[in-house]
Design the sequence.
DNA sequence: GACAATATCTGCAACGATGTACGGAAACAG
DNA sequence: CTGTTTCCGTACATCGTTGCAGATATTGTC
């Protein structure tokens, strides 16, 4: 049987409530009593029962993080940072994988997962703004990374369109004219894919280069999908002199398939990605990409969420935070 | 205010306890009453309060996973699979990053994290068997991946030494004689590094090739450490014709540095790793490595842990499970 | 038809903390 | 020295569930 507050109270010769008051930094306690309580706690090795505390207080001091797949490098790196930042403010992060399925996203917003957490960092991939707004419930939700620009919802995002435009412009500036895009999500309106694609088209337009739908390859944001997309284009005989992967995993998969097929990178085809995961730096050739400021995103999203939870942020409308980006020019597209 | 069991009881015209009994599959309930309760639950949209349930029952239905750093690809991929497997048995996984620091590993074993979980999957990097055994407490702990062969402790591992030996033997068979090893942890006795290193030496011995300490580069298991290790060897003028990274991240970082320096892989130096993370398949050249059967590890470690928690596994001594391995020969070391 | 055995349901206490309300002591004003 | 204010500490109820023990209904046995 674990040591309870009652045991501490008895040992310190005070009431149970006084122990509770000491632990909760209640103002009016004589230093002497406070000391006695602390001594008793140390002596007995008391640790507060978090479950009981949660039941009574209604707070769990856990944040929920909903991503499609934790094995995706971007999410893994993000989750790692989020956990570190959260712990500095005394919170833990509980992760849920949605597999990008609308049903799983809904249960994450409403079900048991929600109960276990005081607030949610949510990466909506299948749900749209209206669905999120109607299912989100009362506890704070901060949308992450994607770009559902809904005035009702808090959002921490990156400059998806601008960054994608910058990458594309970089490829164009290097003389590339037939830039294949990989990882488009045709039936998805929300989500970064659409915005990044928009940035791509805007860059083309600005450069006076025509948009060719044949160069747009749909696919999930995984290495194997990138490889498959390249294989598809090559097999169909579509010609292209650059690949823009809508995220790094896709770009790296694409680059691999190009090299396997004997296509030289960057001489024959330049390759660029999006996210600047650690792997991008160490790929061969190293991957040109855009860094969305993950540290800033982690810091500010956790900050906003906890501020909402603790009532420090009280804006009625959604708070929108957009992190900056940095183009990282490397060997794959100099 | 959320709907409670009491509300359901009132709506169904039964006692609170009967609702509880229905939810806990108590045997003696008339089908008719059971139906009424279920109807009331559906009508009111009742969901059990997990915190209250935990407080009363002492179970959280959460498993703890302690790894050094979730952004390490191996751990990210493992965590993802573990979560999926656990959810099939009705458990969630709460992750804690230890940073490979002994102090953090200890608090994960004893502190608040422990309270929140019914059992632990623990990757000890800094602690040794005795420390784990003495701090582990009463709830089940299954050691993961490393090779603290302690008869007191449950353990799911891979064939570290054998697999490392196989990789090294493969390099030797290809005619490599000066095989640099990267990622050694000199002052660590527990942990996979030592075992993998042992496998390496065993292979050398079996082939009658002398062991050269100058070829052993210490370093953390990250890409940048691999790159730094290669840089160190090259700068010191140490000659070598192969690199064995004690994990894939190290090997990939090493390979990157080699290529940057104009060393051809595999012609001049062959490179092999350990773990078979997804990235290894898509690297260029693709990375020869050994697959430790991650699916099997995930499946069996979760299985063992939950069996312990639920009292289905009652062996007094530690259960030891060793997953098989498969050598994946790819371009970096054909 | 009486008694035991079994099935079905219920009430109360408890898990371990916190919120509210209040009582007594000390400090201060007049 | 009384009355008010400020400190300090306590008792009791409560969060929403489950374990235990028991009450009541139903069935079976002879």
Sequence:
């Amino acid at each position: 049987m674990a040591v309870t507050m009652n045991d501490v109270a008895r040992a310190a010769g005070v009431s149970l409530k006084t122990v509770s008051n000491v632990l909760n930094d209640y103002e009016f306690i004589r230093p002497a009593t406070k000391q006695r309580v602390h001594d008793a706690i140390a002596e007995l090795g008391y640790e507060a029962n978090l479950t009981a505390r949660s039941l009574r207080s209604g707070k769990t001091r856990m944040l929920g993080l909903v991503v499609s797949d934790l094995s995706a490098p971007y999410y893994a790196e993000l989750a790692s940072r989020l956990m570190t930042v959260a712990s500095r403010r005394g919170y833990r992060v509980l992760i849920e994988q949605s597999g990008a399925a609308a049903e799983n996203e809904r249960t994450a917003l409403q079900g048991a997962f929600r109960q276990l957490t005081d607030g949610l960092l949510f990466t909506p991939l299948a749900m749209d703004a209206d669905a999120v707004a109607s299912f989100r419930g009362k506890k704070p939700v901060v949308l992450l990374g994607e770009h559902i620009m809904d005035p009702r919802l808090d959002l921490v995002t990156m400059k998806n369109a601008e960054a994608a435009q910058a990458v594309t412009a970089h490829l164009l500036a290097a003389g590339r004219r037939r830039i294949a895009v990989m990882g488009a999500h045709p039936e998805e309106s929300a989500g970064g894919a659409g915005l990044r694609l928009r940035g791509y088209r805007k860059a083309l337009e600005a450069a006076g280069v025509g948009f060719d739908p044949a160069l747009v390859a749909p696919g999930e944001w995984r290495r194997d999908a990138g490889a498959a997309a390249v294989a598809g284009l090559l097999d169909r005989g579509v010609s292209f002199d650059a690949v823009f992967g809508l995220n790094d995993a896709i770009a790296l998969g694409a680059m691999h398939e190009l090299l396997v097929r004997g296509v030289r990178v960057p001489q024959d085809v330049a390759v660029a990605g999006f996210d600047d995961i650690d792997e991008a730096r160490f790929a061969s050739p190293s991957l040109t990409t855009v860094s969305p400021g993950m540290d800033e995103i982690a810091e500010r999203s956790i900050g906003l969420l906890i501020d909402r939870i603790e009532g420090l942020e009280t804006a009625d409308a959604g708070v929108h935070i957009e992190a900056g980006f940095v183009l990282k020019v490397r060997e794959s597209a100099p």
